[in-house]
C-alpha cells in the first residue's frame, strides 16, 4: 500500500501487522515486560540466531575471498549471496 499524500504516515504496513502489534501490547499489560518489547518463542529465537550465524559466515567467506584476491566475478557472486542471506536474516518471524 502507498501512503497518501494527505494526513499522517502509516504506522503499520497492513491490518494484520496492526492486529499483531495490538495482541502483543495486550499480552504485556500488567506485567513487567516493557511495552516496546518483542516477544519471540524459543524456536523463533533459535531460528534468528541461526540466520545471524549464517550471515556472519557469509561475511567471513567474502572477507577471506578478498584477502585471497579472488576474481571480480567470484566476489560479485559472493556479495550477492551475502545480500540474500542478510535479507533473510532481517526477518524476525
Can you walk me through this structure?
It is a single chain. α2 packs antiparallel against α3. The model has no long low-confidence stretch (mean pLDDT 86). The chain has three helices and no strands. With 93 residues, it is an all-alpha fold. It has helices at 15-28, 42-67, 72-89. It folds into two domains: 1-39, no CATH class; 40-93. It is elongated and about 55 Å long.
What is this structure, in a nutshell?
With 93 residues, the chain is mostly helical.
- Percentage of β-strand residues: under 5%
Helix content percent band: 55-70%
End-to-end Cα distance, whole Å, is: 21 Å
Rg, rounded, reads 19 Å
Write the layout of secondary structure elements.
Layout: H1 15-28, H2 42-67, H3 72-89
Keywords for this structure?
mainly alpha; single chain; 2 domains
